[in-house]
Amino acid sequence: MPPRRSLVAALAVAAGPALVWAPALSAVLPAALPSVAAAQAGAPTRERALADIAKPDRQVRRRAVVRLAEIGTMDDVPALVQALRDPDHLVRALSERALWQVWSRSGDAEVDALFERGLEQMKSGAADAAIATFSGVIDRKPEFAEGWNKRATLYYLVGEYAKSLADCAEVVKRNPSHFGALSGYGQIYLKLDQPEKALDYFERALAVNPNMEQVQAVIGELRALVREKRKRSI
To answer: Is residue 141 within 8 Å of residue 111, measured between CB atoms?
Structure first.
């Protein structure tokens, strides 16, 4: 029916799985990052960066977010999530990037090396090998949420939706602010033809990260679809 075709079109524009679990960087970042990085002489400590992220000067906030991307920990996630609402568009985009970088560090060099191997396998399309590698990451460090998230992505890509949902639950249990996994839930429920659940999770993802324009578009389509579905059920 027309609303569903429109929804599928919106998802296609949003680049499918990239909408769900992959870091989505603003197009402005490649041009803007060098000037930010160039200002990093005498880079601040983590504590100073956390203080600077709330300063009035947007250049100071930009440098702070870039620094947290380099050395931040999971304890810094609340500050970076708050920065997703910064009045400066580049601070917002850099904060999204920083969150993905922080989330991708386990704190264990061996686990991080295994995680990187999984990413390379994932990029090359070796889904089965990547699933096995991320399973190894999970076995070694189950509290590392991003290991679960990457395996959830792969399970989604190979059509193992129940397994992907289970891994998304493990991600959110460990990292409730993970807007990637929340929107991942949404895309899985679309595949399962459960638009109400999909809408709920997309809205939860947007509540964490209001800068997800593709998700905003899908939410608009879903709301129309759910309204139409409810009208037909009356």
So the answer is: yes
Distances (CA, A) of 5 to 84, 148, 187: 32, 32, 15
- What's the rounded Cα separation, in Å, for the pair 171 and 193? 23
pLDDT in tens, 156-186: 999 999 999 999 999 999 999 999 999 999 9
For the stretch 107-125, pLDDT in tens is 999 999 999 999 999 999 9
N-term to C-term CA, the chain: 18
Residue 20 pLDDT class (50, 70, 90 cuts): low
* CA–CA dist 145, 168 (Å, integer): 9
pTM of the model: 0.84
Task: Tell me which CATH homologous superfamily contains domain 2-24+106-233.
Answer: Tetratricopeptide repeat domain (1.25.40.10)
Kindly report, residue by residue over 72-90, the tens digit of the pLDDT: 999 999 999 999 999 999 9
Task: Name the residue among 62, 60, 85 with its Cα closest to residue 179.
Answer: 85
Task: Enumerate the domain spans of the chain.
Answer: 2-24+106-233, 29-103
Which residues make Cβ contacts (< 8 Å) with residue 5, sequence separation at least 6? none
How high is the pLDDT of residue 19?
53
Indicate left, alpha or beta for 216 from its phi (over 0: left) and psi (-120 to 50: alpha): alpha
Q: Which CATH architecture has domain 29-103?
A: Alpha Horseshoe (1.25)
Contact 47, 29 (CB under 8 A): no
